Each structure stands twice: as structure tokens, then as C-alpha cells.
UniProtKB/TrEMBL annotation:
Its EC number is 6.1.1.16. Residues 51-74 are annotated as: Disordered. PANTHER family: CYSTEINE--TRNA LIGASE, CHLOROPLASTIC_MITOCHONDRIAL, CYSTEINYL-TRNA SYNTHETASE. InterPro entries: Cys-tRNA-ligase, Cys-tRNA-synt_Ia_DALR, Cys-tRNA/MSH_ligase, CysS_C, Rossmann-like_a/b/a_fold, tRNA-synt_1_cat_dom, tRNAsynth_Ia_anticodon-bd. Keywords: Aminoacyl-tRNA synthetase, ATP-binding, Chloroplast, Ligase, Metal-binding, Mitochondrion, Nucleotide-binding, Plastid, Protein biosynthesis, Transit peptide, Zinc. GO terms for cellular component: chloroplast; mitochondrion. Residues 430-499 form the Cysteinyl-tRNA synthetase class Ia DALR domain. Transmembrane segments: none annotated. Belongs to the class-I aminoacyl-tRNA synthetase family. This is cysteine--tRNA ligase.
Length: 575
């Protein structure tokens, strides 16, 4: 890698071992913006995945549901909503079988909130699905570690801005690990890419799209007639979107900073315009071009980045290189609190850590995927409890499968009955159709119900079927569900471990211990023996109020996490 990075040596954070299907080979090179010969996309950060051979089930190949497909021609069409055209478009990459994707990362000055989580879960699902279809994907997600907010926070804490940002970059990475977001191919940081940023600003100035004022450099929006094409804003309307107060030195109030002159006590870098640091928008333009070229497939982020950030990125990139082109601009909707966007500036946010302290990370991931990525999600305890209960049910069903299948010969070749094949094929079709229709994850999650119900029917009722046929059916259903969960990023390392964690978090929310629940179960059992059904029902209801459901069976009484009774009643009232 040192040989390839002979022009410049950024400190990349690339991880290979923490996730399934991690990248096995990464090669990176950088671009010089002043040399046209180096403006082609130069990337070989694609994984080498091995195919698997699976039997056919009624014409459906199970390896179509496997995240480890061999790269090559994509296995089906994909339609994505393009913010630029305001409509769904058939995805057609610039290079057959390969995808370049850039997603704007966090400004690392504090712990990330679940609005951030939604962005990166959304694009993790897209990343996983593209790989599932057989594409080789170079996924670039940056860190902004040089910014006004970082500097302000560092002053509050009397800490070096770069050190503070590095610490919160590490915290963010840990959050992504817990949410099972695959590591991107590259995670560039602004502080490592000053030569690229300065080089790009020089090119924009030389091309007549920027001007210098007292050590600052501003982009002239009037010189770029296409400004506003992404957001649909007219130039005279753009003033309201400025991220900072209007500078009277600007030729037009909508002009934005490419380079900011150094101020006392702030980090700075030398440049042709004097010491300073880059503006917010130029950073992503430079880093995306450095790894994907000026022309690539997908640029994504939250809806709040459409204007001004992505609008300004388009202007900068086109000003630096006329051939600049991104095929698909993709944006996810907000997480709201009482119908208001969740944000740090409004103070109405919950950090990922705060939520994960009470709810399993994969329950949070399921919650975020339970609404289509372009629609807003209103944060609520009801929805998180519902997601937690749902994920428990999924893992409990698959855990039961695992236990049964471990007791039987894996070499069974019994035929699967038509009714089970119909469930499998319908689920496969629902998955493929929904995911290919702009990543409609809520439909996929709803479609899980039939195969899960079928598994439970097969496990807990015989219905006259031969044992071997039942086991083959369960194995086939478990496999397709497991493969879908892998594509969605919902597959745990261990079902039993995830179930135990879900129980522990339910106890924490209920402010109970397992010993206390077992004591209540014993008290209820005694009450039932004494035919004191009023007391028995009261114990059950008291536990239900705090989210603990009791389940009676011939083997005794057990408990599981459930939506607390008041929240269930709230759900019913809302419908």
C-alpha cells in the first residue's frame, strides 16, 4: 500500500476482521486535480467473494439469497429514487459490475445521535444489497475532523481540536460496530487530505469560479448557472440556507467559503492564499474525487444535506472538472421527535449510546428499517419496544430451529411439501421485489411473518407430516430467513447470546431482576394451586405493565420481553 500511495499518505482507518464478508483486498491511489490524466476513477477497493453452490427449490436458487455471491453481472434490476430527477430510476453503474459510492460522514465533535444512525444504517443496507446483487462496491464514507463546531467544542473542553475529533471518530466507529454497519472500503479524514483540498480549490480559482478576499476564498455562485439544480432553489432563495452568518465581503450572499483564513487559537494549514483551513463543502468534493474520480455512481446522505452541502458539492466539483458527474443522489428522511427534526442544534436528540443502553442495537436497527428510508420516522418508546419484541420473536424462532436441526442428520434428502415451497418462494419474491423497488425494507420485514409462522407450526404441531419432511422444511425456511437477515444486517453472532441480551435489557427497562420475576412466577403458581385467580391475574398484569409477559405451558411458566401494557393500550388507541 505504501508504494501505491506515493503521492500522499493519508492515515486511513480500514478494518477487515470485525464483520462478516469483510473486504479481502484493498488498493487505493490518489488523484492530482491539476493533471487531467489522473482524473479517471482509480480504485481497486473491491472484495473478492467466493460463490456458493446451492440446490434449487422450485426453480429458486438459494444462493440468490446468500450475501457471498461472486462479483459479476448483477442478479436483478434495482430502482433507486434520485433526488436530482425527483423520481425512481433504474440503477445502471458507469462501469459494469462495479459501483462507486460516497456517503457524507459525521462531523466528529460529540457522540452521534440516532438521526446519524439512520443515515448509516440506510446506506449500509444499500451497500449490502448491492453486494448481494453481485456488484463490487467501493464505499467511501468520510470523517469531517476540521470544522467550526469541532473548534468551538474543543475550546469548551480545553482540548486540541484534532485530538477531540479523533476521539469522537473512534466513538462513532464503535457505534457502527454495534449497529452491524459494515466498514466502508475507505474512511478518509479531512485533516489527512489537505493537499487534495488545496489542489482542488486552486483548480476552481484558475477556472474562474472563485475569488479571494483577504486570505479567504469564496465560490461565486453567479458564475455557475446550474446552481440550484439539486435542491430546486432559485438563487435568490438560497440565502436562508447559509450555514453561517452572511459575510459582507461576499459578492453574493449565497457565495460560500472554500478556504478560511487562520484565526488565533485555531488549527491551520499553509496554502497559496495564506494559512487557514478549508470550508465545510469543499472537503467532500475533494475526498470523493480522490477515491472515486470526478464521475461516479452514488452520492448519499441525510435529507438535510441536499441544501446547501450537496448543492455546493455539485458546484465545486463541476467547477474543478467539467466532466464531473454523479449518477444518483440518494437521501434518507429525518428521525423526528414530536414531528420536529432530531438534531443537536435543537437539543431534542437521543444519542445512539443512550438508546443502546436500554435497547438492543439490532432492535434499534430494526426500528430504523421499519419505515421506508425516504420517509420520516417519529422516535417513540412504542416503536422501539415493538422492534425489540419483534426481534426477540425472530431470534427465538431461529434459536428453536437451531436446537431442532442440531439433533438431526444434515444429510436428509426428504422432499419439501408444496405448501412449504410456496411460502419459501413467495418470501424470496417479496424480498427481491421489495428491495429492488428503492430498498423497501418495511415490506421485507413484514414478509418475514409467513415463514416464521410456518416454522413455528412445523416445530410445535405435527399435523401428520413425516418427521424427516418437517426437518427438511424447517432447514430450508431457516436458511432463507438467515440469508435475508444477513442482507439486512440483522443476523446476530449467536441467537442465544442475542436473546439473553434482549432479556437483560427488558429487565433493565422494567427495573427488575430475573430472581424477582421467578419469585413472582412462584407466587402466581401457588395462587393458581389455591384457585386464587384474582391474585394470579394481578401478578400477570403487574408484570405485563412493565413489559414482562408470562407464558404457561405443560412444562411450566416462563417469561419473555413484551411491549409494556400501557404502550400496547396507547398503540390500540392510536389505531
Amino acid at each position: 500500500m505504501g508504494t501505491l500511495l506515493k503521492f500522499y499518505k493519508p492515515l486511513f482507518s480500514i478494518r477487515f476482521s470485525s464483520f462478516p464478508n469483510s473486504l479481502r483486498s484493498v488498493q487505493l491511489r490518489t488523484h492530482s486535480f491539476n493533471n487531467p490524466k489522473r482524473r479517471n476513477p482509480i480504485r481497486r477497493c473491491f472484495s473478492s467473494l467466493s460463490p456458493s453452490s446451492q440446490p434449487l427449490i422450485n426453480g429458486t436458487t438459494l444462493d440468490k439469497m446468500d450475501g457471498n455471491q461472486q462479483p459479476g453481472s448483477p442478479s436483478s434490476e434495482l430502482w433507486l429514487h434520485n433526488t436530482m430527477s425527483k423520481k425512481k430510476e433504474l440503477f445502471m453503474p458507469k462501469v459494469e459490475g462495479k459501483v462507486g459510492m460516497y456517503v457524507c460522514g459525521v462531523t466528529a465533535y460529540d457522540l452521534s445521535h440516532i438521526g446519524h444512525a439512520r443515515v448509516y444504517v440506510t446506506f449500509d443496507v444499500l451497500y449490502r444489497y448491492l453486494k448481494h446483487l453481485g456488484y463490487e462496491v467501493c464505499y467511501v464514507r468520510n470523517f469531517t475532523d476540521v470544522d467550526d463546531k469541532i473548534i468551538a467544542r474543543a475550546k469548551e473542553l480545553a482540548e486540541d481540536p484534532i485530538s477531540l475529533s479523533r476521539r469522537y471518530c473512534d466513538e462513532f466507529i464503535q457505534d457502527m460496530v454495534h449497529l452491524q454497519c459494515l466498514p466502508p472500503s475507505v474512511e478518509p479524514r479531512v485533516s489527512d487530505h489537505m493537499p487534495h483540498i488545496i489542489d482542488m480549490i486552486k483548480q476552481i480559482v484558475d477556472n474562474g469560479y472563485a475569488y479571494r478576499v483577504e486570505g479567504d476564498v469564496f465560490f461565486s455562485v453567479e458564475n455557475f448557472p446550474e446552481y440550484g439544480q439539486l435542491s430546486g432553489r432559485k438563487l435568490e432563495d438560497n440565502r436562508a440556507g447559509e450555514r453561517v452568518a452572511v459575510d459582507s465581503r461576499k459578492r453574493n450572499p449565497a457565495d460560500f467559503a472554500l478556504w478560511k483564513s487562520a484565526k488565533e487559537g485555531e488549527p491551520f494549514w499553509e496554502s497559496p492564499w495564506g494559512p487557514g483551513r478549508p470550508g465545510w463543502h469543499i472537503e467532500c468534493s475533494a475526498m470523493s474525487a480522490a477515491y472515486l474520480g470526478y464521475s461516479f455512481d452514488i452520492h448519499g446522505g441525510g435529507m438535510d444535506l441536499v441544501f446547501p452541502h450537496h448543492e455546493n458539492e455539485i458546484a465545486q466539483s463541476c467547477a474543478a472538472c467539467k466532466q464531473s458527474n454523479v449518477s444518483y443522489w440518494i437521501h434518507n428522511g429525518f428521525v423526528t421527535v414530536d414531528s420536529e427534526k432530531m438534531s443537536k442544534s435543537l437539543g431534542n436528540f437521543f444519542t445512539i449510546r443512550e438508546v443502546m443502553d436500554l435497547y438492543h442495537p439490532l432492535a434499534l436497527r430494526l426500528f430504523l428499517m421499519g419505515t421506508h428510508y425516504r420517509s420520516p420516522i417519529n422516535y417513540s418508546d412504542v416503536l422501539l419496544e415493538s422492534a425489540s419484541e419483534r426481534i426477540f420473536y425472530i431470534y427465538q424462532t431461529l434459536h428453536d430451529c437451531e436446537n431442532v436441526l442440531s439433533q438431526h442428520d444434515k444429510g436428509l434428502q426428504e422432499s419439501i411439501p408444496p405448501e412449504t415451497l410456496n411460502v419459501i418462494n413467495k418470501f424470496h419474491n417479496d424480498f427481491s421485489t421489495s428491495m429492488s423497488d428503492d430498498l423497501h425494507t418495511p415490506v421485507v420485514l413484514a414478509a418475514l411473518s409467513d415463514p416464521l409462522k410456518t416454522i413455528n407450526d412445523l416445530l410445535h404441531t405435527r399435523k401428520g407430516k413425516k418427521q424427516a419432511m418437517r426437518i427438511e422444511s424447517v432447514a430450508a425456511l431457516e436458511k432463507i430467513i438467515r440469508n435475508v437477515l444477513s442482507v439486512l444486517g440483522l443476523m446476530p453472532t449467536s441467537y442465544s447470546e442475542a436473546l439473553q441480551q434482549l432479556r437483560e435489557m427488558a429487565l433493565k427497562r422494567a427495573k427488575l431482576t430475573e430472581d424477582k420475576i421467578l419469585q413472582k412466577i412462584e407466587e402466581r403458581s401457588e395462587a393458581r394451586k389455591n384457585k386464587d385467580y384474582e391474585k394470579s391475574d394481578a401478578i400477570r398484569k403487574d408484570l405485563a405493565v412493565v413489559g414482562i409477559a408470562l407464558m404457561d405451558s405443560p412444562d411450566g411458566t416462563s417469561w419473555r420481553p413484551a411491549i409494556p401494557l400501557p404502550l400496547q393500550e396507547q398503540q390500540v388507541a392510536a389505531t
